[in-house]
Amino acid sequence: MNKYENGLKIREAVIGKEASKLVSDSLADIAPILDQKTLLEFDEAKTRNILDMKQREMITITTLLTQGDTSNQLNIHIQGALNVGITRDEIIETFVHCLPYVGFPRVLNAVSVAKTVFGKNKHCE
Amino acid sequence: MNKYENGLKIREAVIGKEASKLVSDSLADIAPILDQKTLLEFDEAKTRNILDMKQREMITITTLLTQGDTSNQLNIHIQGALNVGITRDEIIETFVHCLPYVGFPRVLNAVSVAKTVFGKNKHCE
Amino acid sequence: MNKYENGLKIREAVIGKEASKLVSDSLADIAPILDQKTLLEFDEAKTRNILDMKQREMITITTLLTQGDTSNQLNIHIQGALNVGITRDEIIETFVHCLPYVGFPRVLNAVSVAKTVFGKNKHCE
Amino acid sequence: MNKYENGLKIREAVIGKEASKLVSDSLADIAPILDQKTLLEFDEAKTRNILDMKQREMITITTLLTQGDTSNQLNIHIQGALNVGITRDEIIETFVHCLPYVGFPRVLNAVSVAKTVFGKNKHCE
Amino acid sequence: MNKYENGLKIREAVIGKEASKLVSDSLADIAPILDQKTLLEFDEAKTRNILDMKQREMITITTLLTQGDTSNQLNIHIQGALNVGITRDEIIETFVHCLPYVGFPRVLNAVSVAKTVFGKNKHCE
Amino acid sequence: MNKYENGLKIREAVIGKEASKLVSDSLADIAPILDQKTLLEFDEAKTRNILDMKQREMITITTLLTQGDTSNQLNIHIQGALNVGITRDEIIETFVHCLPYVGFPRVLNAVSVAKTVFGKNKHCE
């Protein structure tokens, strides 16, 4: 299994098969190189196993929240956080922990995305 | 022990007694309310025990790296990360994990601060 | 009247009863702690009476404009600015004053939100 | 021809007559001074002829991508980039070149806007 | 008196003669156009007299605090705020008011610059 | 010649041998993976030859200026811009072109770095 295939396997495990396919499809015509590069990132992250997938997704949703204008990416990675076993309470607490560092607007935006993602996962409770 | 005293105890445990005193001293004349507010944050973080201190400091250094113009705060919280038991390799890997989300400049700035902090902790190795 | 009740009274006065209820309702299921924290902020702001409510809302819309990705919050606080007595011309001039510091995109985004909010207040002219 | 008329002529040439009119119309009631100021900017950019219009639009879409929360402006200036003769491949490569400096979220957001703009120009291929 | 002369007079009144000369001198060799453009901004701000100079400097230090990486500019405009009659307490309260919107790092950075500026003005107390 | 060797050759050509070695040395002990990753970026940029090196460095200094808190990186890439043949006037005009999009603070910070870099290249005039 080469790096791209391994990256795909990990990406599917983290963000879900459907979301992974959506990423590929949306980039296929216009910038396929970006799709390949995300695969390499997922492959690498797993290879350097200093942090586990729960820690990685917690870091990911933190950096996305902080950066702003990332609702599409938060959407994918809040689902990713759930997929790798982070609980809803831990996701919200991650966001609340960021409050003194970034203020309400960034945190409330992220909570709003979380609400949508949690709503879609209702049947899984 | 009231909330301020408890917050102080936790802040001293996380960022160190000396750094905690420096924060208080630097704000004493000009904006003591901000010192009190940081104490409340440390008190609260501990009270809502959904995340442990290692997770919290990992989130903190991630949000600081992402935000930019935070070298003073990274300085304090990279030391905080070491103090609560995050290893050097985990700190650097946290920064490297952020690379695909924020790019080189933010990550290299954070690594540069980490180098200074790790240097000061050499005797502890 | 405790701090939360006082904060609620001030929040209702600034952003309006309806918007205040929307904030509470949207956070009730997912992160009620954030609702309580905004109440404390409104309570505090009034207690430290160094700045009046007009100055505070002017500062608020300035920081929101500058930060970016804050259209939801600008929506609420442009209404808040009107509610505490800032005129439309003063709101727009606040945004125009920011132009040399932040550039057109942030300013035009804020003006666009203002246009929507002013439109909703037409009957009050 | 005065500076405003010259600026209008250049703005129409770069972003298109229709988009130029939309900018004017959207600001006419609320902040006409901002419309006039954009005209002055277009006039000036042409006067200081150190960079050509292709270089200017390449710089513009780069700064917009980097800043975030600029989808409206990217929409206008990706079309502008096409209008002054930058190819689709060059636009996408400009975005991909930014990846190591700003990370995936900013780049993917810009690519997503480009996809919409390219779609509207299909008949011109 | 033309626009540049009027702008210079206002800039000197706001940020001080010495700081105004430093801005000109630092840009003289490398980008004199930027010096001229700041003069136009000061001229314009006064002409559109919807906000007074105290309000303008309060907005200015707010947008600079929020943006980050602006210690040079904050240095000049915190002095400017004092020069137009904003008190130290009002400056600090402006920064504290931003806390729930932007978080501690931006606010503490601004307070740190204020401390330096206030120190230089000690003889004026 | 493998990708790392090719990347090194290009990095040396763009930012200079000395600066390239400084990057490697500063990361050797703490995060060598980041040094390797920058080499891959330089290798790739050259391979995808849709944009030439002058265009790439112009994009690079634009994204760095816009992002803020990037004086170290601007230092390296303003020199890089000179090395690949962008003139001083073109560099300054690139920064001035960004002014209406990002405002004075970011532009003045970049001009200040350019002044230092240009000063070091005085003997080459």
Describe the 3D structure.
The structure is a homohexamer of 125-residue chains. The first copy, chain A, is mainly α and 125 residues long. The first copy, chain A, has 2 domains: 1-50, no CATH class; 52-125, AhpD-like (Up-down Bundle), CATH 1.20.1290. Helices cover 81% and strands 0% of the residues of chain A. Chain A is built from 7 helices and no strands. Chain A has helices at 3-15, 17-28, 32-47, 53-67, 71-83, 88-102, 104-120. In chain A, α1 packs across α3 (32-47). The first copy, chain A, is globular, with a radius of gyration of 15 Å. The mean pLDDT of chain A is 95. The interface between A and B is medium-sized, with 29 and 29 residues. Chains A, B, C, D, E, F: InterPro entries: 4CMD/NDH-1_regulator, AhpD-like, CMD-like. Chains A, B, C, D, E, F: Pfam families: CMD. Chains A, B, C, D, E, F: Residues 37-115 form the Carboxymuconolactone decarboxylase-like domain. Chains A, B, C, D, E, F: This is Gamma-carboxymuconolactone decarboxylase. Chains A, B, C, D, E, F: GO terms for molecular function: peroxiredoxin activity.
Summarize the structure.
Six copies of one chain form a homohexamer. With 125 residues, the first copy, chain A, is an all-alpha fold. Helices cover 81% and strands 0% of the residues of chain A.
